């Protein structure tokens, strides 16, 4: 009997994100991932029991990266506006995390309604306690929406936004909306 082959879960998630990024969310199947990884479908299913589990793992991994970035920018117990500022900074900072977010969100939204509900809750939480009766709160909300819009335009490849433009957009959002 041969030695049991180890399958690198993180490598499979990287490959799954790449499939979504380059071929679209509908192209992410257990079979496509197995072919890309050079393993059997059973090997993928051993690591991820189902396509839903794979999709959930993409989202969970991105969320973990995001929370680390956010904590780095805001520290413990930030105000709601500081959380928005941290979100904007995290959105523009890490390409790898951003690719994971784009892949995860695209895949989740296109696959099943339960993932859509979780995504809605995640977004609602980002602005839930921002006091939009104040100028600072309204600017924070606008900065959040601008950052998310720029993110999706870039990472869904709806607009060609190079690194220099990306940095300039961040600077504009930060200076014009958050540092007023």
From TrEMBL:
Record's protein name: TetR/AcrR family transcriptional regulator
DNA-binding region: 29-48
Species whose genome carries this gene: Parapusillimonas granuli
Keywords, ordered alphabetically: DNA-binding, Transcription, Transcription regulation
Domain HTH tetR-type: 6-66
SUPFAM superfamilies in the record: Homeodomain-like (SSF46689)
PROSITE patterns named among the record's database cross-references: HTH_TETR_2 (PS50977)
Domain of life the protein comes from: Bacteria
GO molecular function, one term: DNA binding
Transmembrane regions listed in the UniProt entry: none
Pfam families registered for this protein in UniProt: TetR_C_28, TetR_N
Keyword Acetylation on entry: no
């Amino acid at each position: 009997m041969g030695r049991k082959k180890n399958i690198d879960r993180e490598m499979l998630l990287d490959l799954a994100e790449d499939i979504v990024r380059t071929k679209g969310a509908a192209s992410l199947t257990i079979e496509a991932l197995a072919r890309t990884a050079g393993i059997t479908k059973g090997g993928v299913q051993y690591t991820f029991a189902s396509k839903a589990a794979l999709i959930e793992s993409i989202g969970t991994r991105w969320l973990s990266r995001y929370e680390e970035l956010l904590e780095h920018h805001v520290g413990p117990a930030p105000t709601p506006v500081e959380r928005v500022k941290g979100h904007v900074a995290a959105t523009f900072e890490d390409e790898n995390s951003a690719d994971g977010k784009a892949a995860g969100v695209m895949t989740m939204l296109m696959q099943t309604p339960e993932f859509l509900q979780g995504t809605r809750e995640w977004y609602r939480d980002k602005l839930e306690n921002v006091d939009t009766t104040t100028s600072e709160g309204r600017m924070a909300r606008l900065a959040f929406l601008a950052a998310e819009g720029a993110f999706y335009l870039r990472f869904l490849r709806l607009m060609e936004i190079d690194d220099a433009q990306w940095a300039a957009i961040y600077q504009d959002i930060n200076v014009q909306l958050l540092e007023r």
